[in-house]
Write a sequence for this structure.
């Protein structure tokens, strides 16, 4: 009981944030949520009709979904654990998520309406940051079971867990390319966090960014040609894109817009992001 109580205080004290959509053509930012709670980690459904996100608006942290105009908000999880990091399957029928009971975190899956919850990892370490392969057969995730965070691949039912990275530094936020041929992730193996890609068997690990800032949370564009990522400099994140052919990178969001974890819209024209109004 004391532990749960303490967690709930921590959640309620998280920095307030909102979900917003940034239009890449007009450069306009539209807020979808307006409240004093932490609304985080939005991801667009593959058919474009819904956005999943997590929020501490109802005392415990839970997953929610809403329309891309901010209406029809539906709560998907209801227990005292912290549920976050929702990730859509390519067919839009299921959501992977992270279930944090305080001392342990695991990867779970449920139907898009919150029903039929199934636990996929059962390990005392912190397992999470999961994403699907495009064919829905595999799940890539991060775990600190060796003492630091490494990337692992397993079957979608949780069987056959295979370790892909062996860097002895933190590696996290793995995500499949749309064609399933690559996994992007971030790693601290070269001093600070940079964006990397590798083949789904762990071979051909290559660094894409190299600088003094924290580059995290990669997300492939729907056409597979670019990777969106968050860069932390001077305490704040901005969104950047790197083109995989030219290796050129550019900033997406203006300096004065404070953002967090973000994902492309299915049509590649917008980005849904965590947003800090102040
Ligand atoms: Ca909020
Ligand atoms: Ca909860
Ligand atoms: Ca675990
Ligand atoms: Ca960096």
């Amino acid at each position: 009981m004391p532990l749960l109580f303490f967690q709930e205080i921590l959640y309620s004290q998280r920095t307030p944030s909102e979900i917003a959509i940034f239009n890449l053509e007009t450069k306009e930012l539209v807020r979808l949520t307006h409240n004093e709670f932490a609304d985080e980690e939005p991801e667009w459904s593959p058919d474009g009709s819904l956005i999943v996100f997590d929020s501490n608006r109802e005392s415990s942290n839970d997953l929610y979904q809403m329309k891309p105009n901010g209406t029809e908000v539906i709560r998907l999880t209801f227990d005292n654990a912290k549920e976050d990091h929702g990730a859509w399957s390519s067919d839009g029928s299921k959501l992977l998520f992270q279930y944090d009971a305080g001392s342990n975190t695991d990867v779970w899956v449920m139907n898009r309406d919150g029903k039929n919850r199934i636990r996929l990892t059962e390990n005392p370490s912190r397992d999470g940051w999961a994403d699907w392969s495009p064919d829905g057969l595999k799940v890539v995730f991060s775990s600190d079971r060796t003492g630091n965070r490494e990337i692992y691949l397993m079957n979608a039912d949780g069987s056959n867990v295979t370790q892909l990275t062996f860097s002895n530094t933190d590696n996290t936020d793995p995500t499949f390319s749309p064609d399933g041929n690559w996994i992007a992730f971030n790693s601290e193996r070269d001093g600070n966090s940079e964006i990397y890609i590798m083949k789904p068997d762990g071979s051909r690990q290559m660094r894409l960014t190299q600088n003094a800032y924290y580059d995290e949370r990669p997300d492939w564009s729907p056409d597979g040609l670019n990777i969106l990522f968050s860069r932390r400099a001077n305490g704040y994140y901005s969104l950047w894109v790197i083109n995989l052919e030219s290796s050129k990178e550019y900033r997406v969001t203006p300096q004065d817009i404070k953002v967090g974890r973000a994902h492309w819209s299915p049509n590649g024209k917008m980005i849904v992001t965590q947003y800090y109004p102040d």
Notes: The longest strand covers residues 51-58. Helices lie at 2-12.
